[in-house]
Automatic annotation (TrEMBL):
Biased composition (Basic and acidic residues): 7-28, 271-290, 782-808
Principal cellular location given in the protein's record: cytoplasm
Keyword annotations: Coiled coil, Cytoplasm, Motor protein, Muscle protein, Myosin, Thick filament
Name recorded for this polypeptide: Paramyosin
UniProt domain Myosin tail: residue ranges: 1-133, 179-807
Keyword Coiled coil: yes
Length: 808
């Protein structure tokens, strides 16, 4: 049993070591997950669906935590009660064991006293028997002397009749005195034996009471062990539920971190889009400012054109310079868009680096999974070794059962031998009773003969006695003496046989007593060993309870940490909700902006078409105006020539004004025609300027429409590219997240299965071993009861033998 217990302890230590390894791995995984969570929390917040899921999980987690707290409080109360009961039971058991030891010492003392008294009684009985034979011999010799005298002096009765009477009376008085003394001694011995038997019965009753108390204490100990097993099962359930809650919390944290990561990426892209929008707004403002500057420049040119009579080539040069400036601005915008494109590619590379990081973390988790598989293989090998040890233990238990059956058969054989001896003793007792009855009959006959002899001596006279009557009486007395002599010889032979049988029975009883004492000593040693084992188990249970207290304190600290982290997660979730609301608002704004951009794009498309048609019309008009302008220039040149001729003619006319009135009239006509020509020139210049302004407006509108169209197209393409990249990145991240969640869940399930299988197998082994130990203890108790019964029967047989010896 000690070897099996040692093997069980080794198995328990190996299981504890495996459990410590699993806890260390679990702690490492928790630390890595915590680090990942912190990294992900540093990068972002949550989305709406995950926030709802987080709320649900938080509600479930709070309910589970409350239930766990209630169960933990109830378990603490039950555990404290069990500790109190266990302590009281242990104290009661120790007190009972001490009382049993005291009672055992008292029983041993009483046993030694009874053995000494029994030896004294046997010695007294032997002395009485040795003293009894001379009385019988004396009586018998007296009877023979009397008979010889009667034979010798049968013919002289008158002389020897008083002597015969004296001899007979002396013999009868000797017999009566001997019987009275033997009766007194027998009664004294019976009284002493009865007192000793009363004491022995009282001691046996006390021993039976103590055995009942011990049985009750063992039953209470079994109940306490069952309660402890139930409490351990509850603790394991609580630990599993807490582990499940921790896994769910970790999953929630992981999902929260993934969502915060995605949200941060979306926020960064939104910021980029907002920055791009701001840049576009700035570019639009710059273009509007440039447009305003161009309009101001055109107005200045118009004013200069209206004020001065510059040639139209200067206007064309200014227009070409403005077009060059516009081309430079367009080139700047193109370069800026190229820079934005490069930035987007850099962002894409950063996202690719994040994906590579996730891939590395996945590979790391894969390595951890392989480590867990190796640990599982190690635990399986440990399980195989435990099964082998269990088989060895079963073999040892089978051997113990075989030895127990062998001892049971030997005990049954001893019981049968004791029964046979009891039957032989009963037959001998019956024979002794028959011999006593015969002896009493012979005594009665002898007393009757003595009375008749006395009557004859008293009533008959010496002279009246005849020889025939005396011979008849002598013959009768001789026959009676012979019969008495034979009966005494038979009684002596039977007494010798009874003494031999008594000696044999004493030897057998002493051997049985020695065997029973040895068995009781071995049982006492076994009980002491069981007591030591129980005390050791008690100490181990106390140590395990202290370890459980420490683990519970650690769990409470971890639970407090988890509560603090949960509160932080709640705060972050609230911040994430606020950011999500802001993000939704920004998304709505962006959607509105996209709608506005689409509308502007449609309007710009329409305006572009209109501008193209207007540009075509303007080109036609421009051609017409250019032709008209050329014609007007020619007319202007002609008018200038005519004006110069008219001026010369006017001068001549003025010179000749004084000549005649007709000349005055002609000069007036020329002056009027010159004024008309100047007005026509101004009108033509105004129309040319108006047509140039319309052409410039149409060109600027067309250029603005084309720029808007290009910008909107570039924005739409960039947005589509960004959207595709975001979708691909989110899909990759979701796939990686799903794979990581699956691997983590598989790892957790495997860890939970390993813990459950290890705990269940250990508990099954422990329960099986406890059941076997209980069965062996029950067998030992049954054997002890049977040995006690055999001891009681042996004591009863001793009592019967003593009674028989006293009766003899």
């Amino acid at each position: 049993m000690e070897s099996t217990v040692q093997e069980l302890r080794d198995d328990l230590e190996s299981e504890k070591a495996a459990r410590d390894r699993a806890e260390n791995q679990k702690r490492d995984l928790k630390e890595e997950l915590e680090a990942l969570r912190l990294e992900l929390i540093d990068t972002g917040t949550n989305s709406e669906a995950q926030a709802e899921a987080l709320r649900k999980h938080e509600a479930e987690l709070s309910n589970a935590r409350k239930q766990l707290e209630v169960d933990a409080a109830a378990h603490e109360i039950a555990l404290s009660e069990l500790r109190k009961k266990h302590a009281t039971a242990v104290d009661a058991l120790t007190e009972q064991l001490e009382a049993m030891k005291r009672v055992k010492l008292a029983v041993e003392n009483s046993k030694t006293q009874m053995e000494t008294s029994n030896a004294d009684l046997t010695n007294q009985l032997n002395t009485a028997l040795t003293a009894k034979t001379p009385w019988f011999k004396v009586a018998r010799s007296d009877w023979f002397l009397a008979s010889d005298r009667l034979k010798i002096h049968s013919y002289r009765p008158s002389l020897y009749c008083p002597c015969n009477l004296f001899i007979t009376r002396f013999a009868t008085t000797c017999v009566y005195v001997f019987r009275a003394e033997t009766e007194k001694r027998r009664r004294a011995l019976e009284q002493k034996l009865n007192a000793k038997m009363m004491k022995l019965e009282e001691v046996e009753q006390q021993k039976a009471d103590l055995e009942e108390r011990l049985a009750k204490a063992t039953a209470e100990g079994e109940a306490l062990s069952a309660a402890l097993e139930e409490s351990e099962n509850k603790l394991s359930k609580f630990a599993r539920s807490e582990a499940a809650n921790a896994t769910t919390l970790q999953e929630l944290r992981q999902s929260l971190e993934d969502e915060t990561r995605a949200k941060l990426a979306i926020q960064t892209r939104l910021r980029q889009a907002e920055s791009e929008r701001e840049g576009l707004k700035d570019s639009l403002e710059e273009e509007e400012q440039g447009k305003m500057a161009l309009e101001k420049h055109v107005q200045l040119l118009q004013q200069q054109a209206s004020c001065s009579s510059k040639s139209p080539m200067d206007d064309v040069k200014a227009k070409v310079a403005e077009d060059a400036k516009l081309l430079e601005t367009l080139e700047d915008t193109r370069k800026r868009l190229q820079r934005d494109r490069d930035e987007m590619s850099n962002r894409n590379e950063e996202l690719q680096a994040q994906v590579e990081k996730l891939e590395k973390s996945r590979k790391k988790l894969q390595g951890e999974l392989e480590d867990a598989n190796h640990a599982l293989a190690a635990q399986r090998s440990d399980q195989v070794t435990n099964e082998r040890k269990l088989k060895k233990l079963e073999a040892s238990l089978a051997e113990a059962q075989a030895t127990a059956t062998r001892l049971q058969t030997e005990k049954d054989q001893n019981d049968r031998d004791m029964r046979q001896r009891e039957t032989a003793l009963l037959t001998k007792e019956r024979e002794l009773e028959e011999l006593q009855e015969r002896l009493e009959d012979s005594e009665r006959q002898r007393t009757n003969l003595a009375k008749e002899l006395d009557d004859l001596v008293s009533h008959t006279d010496d002279a009246g006695k005849s020889r025939i009557e005396l011979e008849q009486n002598n013959f009768k007395l001789e026959t009676q003496l012979k019969e008495l002599h034979q009966s005494f010889e038979e009684l002596e032979d039977e007494m010798a046989q009874l003494a031999m049988e008594k000696q044999r029975a004493d030897l057998q009883i002493n051997a049985l007593k020695a065997q029973l004492e040895r068995e009781l000593a071995t049982k006492d040693e076994g009980f002491e060993e069981q007591k030591r084992q129980l005390q050791k188990l008690n100490r181990e249970l106390k140590e395990e309870l202290e370890d459980e207290k420490k683990q519970r304190l650690n769990l409470s600290q971890q639970r407090k940490k988890l509560d603090a982290e949960l509160s932080e997660v709640k705060q972050r979730a609230e911040v994430a909700d606020r950011q999500r609301d802001e993000f939704s608002k920004q998304l709505k704004r962006l959607q509105l902006l996209s709608m506005d951009l689409k509308r502007e794009l449609d309007a710009s498309m329409k305006s572009r078409d209109d501008a193209l048609t207007a540009a075509r019309d303007l080109e036609k008009r421009l051609r017409a105006t250019e032709s008209e302008r050329a014609q007007a220039v020619e007319d202007l040149a002609a008018s200038e020539r005519t004006c110069r001729t008219a001026k010369s003619e006017r001068d001549e006319a003025l010179e000749e004004a004084n000549a005649s009135q007709s000349a005055k009239y002609a000069s007036l006509l020329l002056y009027l025609s010159l004024n008309l020509l100047i007005e026509d020139k101004k009108k033509l210049e105004a129309t040319v300027m108006h047509r140039e302004e319309e052409l410039e407006e149409a060109q600027t509108a067309r250029e603005e429409a084309e720029d808007r169209y290009k910008r909107t197209l570039s924005l739409m393409e960039q947005a589509q590219i960004d959207l595709g990249l975001e979708r691909s990145n989110t899909q990759r991240l979701e796939a990686a997240n799903v794979s990581l969640e699956k691997t983590v869940k598989e790892l957790r399930d495997k860890m939970a299965e390993l813990e459950k299988e290890g705990g269940k197998r250990l508990k099954l082994q422990v329960t099986a071993l406890e059941g076997r130990l209980a069965a062996t203890e029950e067998q030992l108790e049954a054997e002890s009861r049977e040995h006690q019964k055999a001891a009681r029967e042996a004591r009863r047989n001793d009592k019967k033998l003593k009674d028989l010896m006293q009766m003899v």
